[in-house]
Amino acid sequence: xxxxxxRRKFLKMLGWGGAGTALTGCDLPTTVTLEEGKEExxxxxxxxxxxIPGIGVWYASTCTxxxxxxxxxxxxxxxxxxxxxxxxxxxxxxxxSCMMGxxxxxxxxxxxxxxxxxxxxxxxxxxxxxxxxMSALTSKIGPDSGVKGDRVGMITGxxxxxxxxxIDELLAQVGSKNHYVHEVINTSVWSSVxxxxxxxxxxxxxxxxxxxxxxxxxxxxGTWISPVHNMGEYAKFRKGARGSLIQVEPKMTLTGGxxxxxxxxxxxxxxxxxxxxxxxxxxRGWNAVDxxxxxxxxxxxxxxxxxxxxxxxxxxxxKRIASMLTERAPSLVIAGASTENHExxxxxxxxxxxxxxxxxxxxxxxxxxxxxxxKALRAKQGNTKDLLLLAKALKDNKLDVLxxxxxxxxxxxxxxxxxxxxxxxxxxxVAFSMFPDETTLQADLVLPIHSGxxxxxxxxxxxQPDTSSVLSLQQPLMExxxxxxxxxxxxxxxxxxxxxxxxxxxxDYYSYLQTAVANMPAxxxxxxxxxxxxxxxxxxxxxxxxAKASANALTPKLVDMKFKVKHDNSxxxxxxxxxxxxxxxxxxxxxxxxxxxxPDQIAKVVWGSWAELHPKxxxxxxVKNGDYVRVTSASGSIEAQVYIHKGIHPDAxxxxxxxxxxxxxxxxxxxxxNPLKILNPLMERRTGELATHATRVKVTNAHKHxxxxxxxxxxxxxxxxxxxxxxxxxxxxxxxxx
Amino acid sequence: xxxxxLLAMFKDFDDAFxxxxxxxxxxxxxxxxxxxxMMSPIEHPEVDTKLGKRPVNIAYFTLAGAIFGVTFGFFFLxxxxxxxxxxxxxxxxxxxxxxxxxxxYEMLIFFAVWxxxxxxxxxxxxxxxxxxxYSEKLTVDEIGIVVEIDESELDSVKNFxxxxxxxEIREEKV
Amino acid sequence: xxxxxxxxxxxxxxxxxxxxxxxxxSMQAPRKAYWITVFVCLTMFLCAIAAxxxxxxxxxxxxxxxxxxxxxxxxxxxVFWIGMSHAGTLLSAILHIIHAQWRKPIYRFAEAMTTxxxxxxxxxxxxxxxxxxxxxxxxxxxSDRGIWPNFRSPLVWDAFAISTYLSSxxxxxxxGMIPDMAILRDHTTGWRKKLYGILCLGWxxxxxxxxxxxxTYMLLACFLIPLAISVHSIVSSDxxxxxxxxxxVTTFPPYFVxxxxxxxxxxxxxxxxxxxxxxxxxxYMTLNIMEKTTKLTFAIAMVWTYLNLIxxxxxxxxxxxxxxxxxxxxxxxxxxxxxxxxxFCGMVVPFTLCFQKLxxxxxxxxxISILLNLGMYVERWMIVAPTLAQAHSPHQWDVLWGSVIxxxxxxxxxxxxxxxxxxxxxxxxxxxxxxxxxxxxxxKHEIHEEELAKKHAATKAAGKxxxxxxxxxxxxxxxxxx
Amino acid sequence: MQVERRTLLRKLVCSLRGxxxxxxxxxxxxxxxxxxxxxxxILPAKSYAELPVPAHITPPVGEHESPIVPQPIEFxxxxxxxxxxxxxxxxxxxxxxxxxxxIPPTSKCMGCHKVIAxxxxxxxxxxxxWEKGESPKWLKVHDVPDYVHFTHEKHIRKFVFDxxxxxxxxxxxxxxxxxxxxxxxxxxxxxxxNMGFCQRCHEANGGPGDCWACHK
Amino acid sequence: MSxxxxxxxxxxxxxxxxxxxxHEYDHRFGMTIDLDICTGCNSxxxxxxxxxxxxxxxxxxxxxxxxxxxxxxxxxxxxxxxxYAEEGAKFLPMLCQNCGAAxxxxxxxxxxxxxxxxxxxxxxxxxxxxxRYCSNNCPFxxxxxxxxxxxxxxxxxxxxxxLNPDLSVRDKGVMEKCTFCIQxxxxxxxxxxxxxxxxxxxxxxxxxxxxxPTGAIVFGDTMDPDSRVSKLWEKHQxxxxxxxxxKDKTNEEIxxxxxxxxxxxxxxxxYLERVRDTEV
Lengths: 738, 174, 482, 216, 280
Known about the structure:
The complex is a heteropentamer. By secondary structure, chain A is an alpha/beta fold. In chain A, 29% of the residues lie in helices and 18% in strands. Chain A folds into 4 domains: 7-108, N-terminal domain of TfIIb (Single Sheet); 118-184 and 374-468 and 482-521, 3-Layer(aba) Sandwich (Rossmann fold), CATH 3.40.50.740; 188-367, Dimethylsulfoxide Reductase, domain 2 (3-Layer(aba) Sandwich); 574-705, Beta Barrel (Barwin-like endoglucanases). Chain A contains 25 helices and 28 strands. The longest helix of chain A has 15 residues, at 270-284. In chain A, 61% of the residues are buried. Chain D is built from 10 helices and 1 strand, in the order ααααααβαααα. Among the domains of chain D are: 5-42; 77-103 and 138-214, no CATH class. Chain E is α+β, with helices and mostly antiparallel strands. Chain E contains 10 helices and 12 strands. Chain E has a 4-stranded mixed β-sheet with strand order 9-1-11-10. In chain E, strands 2-3 form a two-stranded antiparallel sheet. The model of chain E has no long low-confidence stretch (mean pLDDT 86).
């Protein structure tokens, strides 16, 4: 008469409190508002000391909404997770969370989750049992399937921790090297430049130590590297000596909205501006570090007037920036999406980095980061190069089996790459997926996986903000809500077991993870005390493992720059800026109702796509807010409503990423347009990344109007002084007195 | 000796007033001017002067109703406010007099009006059981005079009315 | 003959029995036009019922309301109907107290209008409520939960004021009708006789009843005047007691009262024309009465215009930026069209009433009265909407034109009012018979007196020819009072 | 064993209801039921002395009658409370710690019933649940609307622990709102638990008068 | 409800805000929002949705202006001159200010909104009859009305499992607004009482303040002199009370202000002025 009770049983849902579903105000004309015998009460089978009905318990876990790897605390009551907050112990987010992290719960409870395995029978996907699904899987990639290793591919988003290990393991056993890691919102050009010039892919940036931050399109408050961490640092940067933020970008991002000075440079010319500033600084002899004459010679061409001509940024502004960088040293100069993702992106970022070098910021505001000691667990960062590689492989018909996990190439790839069409040439496509997105619905076998709140896992953030590196544990906060979903790790493990007997020791991924974490080398788990058993329970409690630092000093080095601005605008006078927004991200959160309903931070538009235009351009086209415009590139065209504001370069049109899903559940489907679809297949010259910001377009009036659904009546305060603003010198002056 | 009621109908007020004047002048016995009840299709202010001062007491009740209304209003409102569990104050006192005055004013009128109407109904004898001595002409254009007399004087009074332009005479036993 | 009638309120030689007969005839045998009107009103009303059922089921979103526009046409319409209700009070109470005899033929339907427009108005706060079924919570009843309504809230004052006003004006109407009920009891047959027999409470018209009646009627009139003024002031305090720009105005109470009298007069004019035409009441609702009504309307229109301008200038001279912006937005913003319609209909159109030719031309008066009514409706909406559209927080600025549901309910309220009124005119006399008789009686009396005086003068100025006997009556100036 | 009128009556009524639902009830059945019901109702009732009201509490006033809620297992409160003298808070263990009193976990039931009375049908029902690894789905009897925030913890603390009221007699406190549970099999709602009921008690015993103390 | 009570305590019942009101507050919760470090990222708003069972209304209803965001981030462009928005955008997190002399309170016909002993402006949903006067009378426009039965399509299964059982789901026809996370305050109070201590600063933190990535939002009890909030109020020379603040402006670092202070509503939220470097 013994009942097997494992940990999951403690996370069991209780029928208590009725989930708040009965309503206030529902006491319609009847006067009796009491209800007997309507709500169910289910007790625990076996109680756990800490689980008291009616009282929330907090469990530590990790956010899986983006790649930053923030630690989470989930509030669990009656076996349901109700709310997540940041984990105060995590050095990444210090107990804070962004809107995407907050909406993890809606991703988890999403009504459009896939609830059972599905297999393609004929042209449709049909629900099958797990046995059937697993046997199909075995027959296709099992040891006896005769599948050729190099014809097996796997495309994932950024992966790290033990998921990365287990993916590597599986691919190694199959004999494949085709692991494509794809993210549209990435920093791979930045990373390449950092690797080449500093010797560290992901250097640690000390925003708070900078007197002035000069950002070339790096939306570090919104979508760049580790937004929540950056925002915390930004607060310190503002609060202390109150540094100033200068943002150069074609379209105002959230960071641009918070800048002290926002400068629109002509898209694709940010590098020239950086070189112009560098030249001016060297001319005046303000540079802290000498530059070799070869570089100085290159810089000589970038005189102020020349730069003004190329970039459209007035000379006085350039001078002012240069003197700011000098006066308020140390500074921090960074570059993000709108600088990186051009054909000359590498050179542009290198030019930006040059400013850091000559201003002597290295070692002050830019430091070497702590690397996680176990190399295999480090993050494999997503990029768009792999997407291009995959597209090529698909075109050349090089793959028989393709696994997809945590990414949606059918949505994010430009139409001209024909990824969607290419996928149909793959014999057997397996999708590990929570949602019926575009890629998943093309798969032959769909394996429904647990949500981030049901699954086990470990994450090693690519950007390590602390002096010691950190591994963040993802643990289930509740029992799976759907009976038929399985953990990604569990499925991988069962596939591994087919070939490698070693894995037979582990009944499930949980035990694998427990063993793996508890037995990590002492230099890794140095922060966690006790025997291996205690380590595990400590990790469960804290949610993070702080590994000992192994930071090297940075090795600054100049690279050869051949910065060139391409002028090719025959018929397509405008630049398309496919902007990323904190919220829908690259479109993976479009099925979360909250994130659809929350306005974009700048345009405040909800539930759809829009095209941002400068008033000048809008009056040229004769459009006003809400009118539709057609944005046409050489590869296609999209229509979107116009939102007009002064935070965009007149030559640029910005359409945010994230919308335009053909599938992906009720909240995302058929809503807005996807700017990625009309991108031209241009590549960054040096790194081979997709140059997402390089596409030239023309914008025409589509002569259609609808009310623009956006938050807020008046765009200005009409002199109300809701937001009072004082100048910083006022602030400084008084600080001196005080 | 039973008593009889007589209703005499007249063409207009002038004829009726003549009769009243004659009764006042004691031209016919057994009828006092105070017994006269005059019915008319319209209200004529001279009726009062002709028939003598008869009391109308409604206004006292109205006053009482008004006073009650305002007092009740004050105590009701302040005690409800004082005993209310929560105080929606918005920076205002618990018993805010200016706002209560508004309601007290309304209550004054409410009670005054209702007492007036109720008293009117009672004081003017509406809704009470009445004799059948009535003519439909009374609501067209004729004036009626009702007198109550002893049987013995029935004929003389009848004749008196007939001689004085009465169009019609009806009688009933009390 | 026509020359004779021209100066008189009514032809004093009207047979009393004819008065009875005419009015009773108007109450019986509805004509085709009557049924068509009933049908139209019923359709409008059913539209409103359907819309209300939908709104009740779905919530107030169906009315198209949104965050800044928490109130919209429901409240505007409520104020409109409340305003309309002041017509009866004005005509019957105020003019009664000042002995304006010419009110007598027309005050009855004006009073009915009061009651019915109050009954219509009363619906709007209910329709407007999010949870109608809890409406009774605004009433001060003793409950074991120890909670009371909030007596500070102007909405509670509204509830008090409207119930007081509705009951008082209904009583006033009823009391005034008792002698007429007796007439009807005596001169109808069948169910009507039974009904009026009950309603007349055994009225016999004896001197005791008349005496008490006179006193009661006067007392009620005395109470009704301050009551009517307080009611509309309280309605205005729904706005004036708030802090919203454009609402928090000290002149609002008199402004609202003036507006109410104004719209009431305009409505009386409309109904006057209709009743006169449809019930062939030319002899009772004479052009002279109409002329007096229009003069009164003009006077009130000017008062209203003045108060309106005073409000604007007070805002203009003050330094409240929010108020000022709302005012400017009214004139130039999205609602400008409506605003200028109000200015035109409310301030310009009344000047047509200066011309006697127009005053005596019924079709023109009908059109003008409709325009005035429109102006007054729009005025109420211009109080509610622009303030909400442009209040303190610019982030919440918005322009709203109500949804179909809202329009249907507002539209249907006219149907409901019409329906009540149509039922009324067939059930009750829309002309007060006994009072028209009184009017005739007094007129005759006065003419008689005057003739006597003339004769006396003539005999004094010996030898003068006796030409006054042609019946050329010099009007009734003494009776007009005002 | 003593026949309990209440229990029998209830059972009868419940079974009659079940039959009515099936619509196959015959006159004969009805008759026999009514005869049975009559017989049962004239049986002597098992009576208890009224529960004493603790001296420090002014009890809330109000009575309520409600239909009996059909529970998956007909749990006899009377046996446990009255005959076994088990304290309320032994099973409803969360009452002193949380807003809900809690239904005892199945393991707690099985703690005794692994050995006690295993032959009884109700216990066998329970064992079945236990072996399946499930908990019975009870239906809430004492339910307040969802906009009411009621917490057992605060009431127990105020009336029992703060007053040093003997915990053995906690039944007297619980009974103020839950009625005399020792006389019931499955719990029945005997008190109205409406706002007036709560309100009067709060006033009498100095509970908070703030709306937000109880409304959410 | 006795006459004696009224007569004896009449002067007490007549005390208004100028005399300190009749309330004796246990706490007076307040907030400080530093607009200089607020980035306008919407995190607070999301946290509020998650905590307070706020309905997602969908595009059509959003378009009509019927959205339910208790905490909204307003964005203003104030660059009328110049070609570009060089100063960036102005963000303003706007939520119920829990005014000490709240204008919404006296106008509610059924007293569904009132002041709690915690100094909060409470909205009792189940008492509300939906006259919407309170919202009309709110200069901040932060009261949201349930124009529809939003619950019907906002939480399709199993999204409803996320609903916080500590507060109710509102049906059509009731007004709702920011409550300063009353359920958290209640939990914290219970916890403090259980541990037999007074509530300390940091025991209770609203969802928005907890989520705010830059820590721009600070929440606490302004009556507790040691709380972070009251220190900030003190530092910025803003004090509770319905009247315009007189500041000793020797120090420009005093950035605190309350929106619509001139309306004498005594808001509980202190905003710190946004700072922009105009030198650049």
